[in-house]
Amino acid sequence: MSPEEQKLYIRLFQRKRGWFRCSKLEYLKISSNLTPILNSLVQKGFLEGENQLTDLRETLNLIAAPELKLLVKSLHISSKSAGQKGGTKEDTIEAIVSHADNQKHSLEVLKALF
Questions:
Q1: Which of 78, 81, 99, 100 has the fewest Cβ atoms within 10 Å of its own Cβ atom?
Q2: Count of Cβ atoms closer than 10 Å to residue 65 Cβ
Q3: Alpha-carbon dihedral sign for residues 81, 85, 87, 88
Q4: How far apart (Å, rounded) are the C-alpha atoms in residues 57 and 34?
Q5: Per DSSP, which regions of 1-114 are E strands?
Q6: Cα–Cα distance measured from residue 61 to residue 107, given in angstroms and rounded to the nearest whole number
Q7: pLDDT range class, residue 39, cuts 50, 70, 90
Q8: Of 75, 69, 22, nearest in space to 48 by CA
Q9: Least confident of 32-41, 49-58, 101-110
Q10: What was the pLDDT predicted at 113?
Q11: What is the tens place of the pLDDT at every residue in 7-17?
Q12: Which molecular function GO terms apply here (predicted)?
């Protein structure tokens, strides 16, 4: 493992376990572009890549609330609180999950966002 890979792996290991959006990771002391380092760590089996992300709720939780609202709008999901002012992110996620259960095309739509 390269020194950059080691440093990034340690940083990620120290964080709360879970999924992270690559675009939200920033460790300038390691590199200004973490993508190749992350890809290498995935390839070497130290990290899981987006192909292992199979749970819809887990995927939706990675998406920012404004992006979820756009998704609700593009999927034409009608719900009192989904994507509306005053509605919570959880309300929006619940509406999308419910819609996905009915439509049976859940994760493929979301993977296009990443």
A1: 78
A2: 13
A3: positive
A4: 26
A5: none
A6: 13
A7: very high
A8: 22
A9: 101-110
A10: 63
A11: 999 998 888 77
A12: 5'-3' exonuclease activity; 5'-flap endonuclease activity; flap-structured DNA binding; metal ion binding; phosphodiesterase I activity
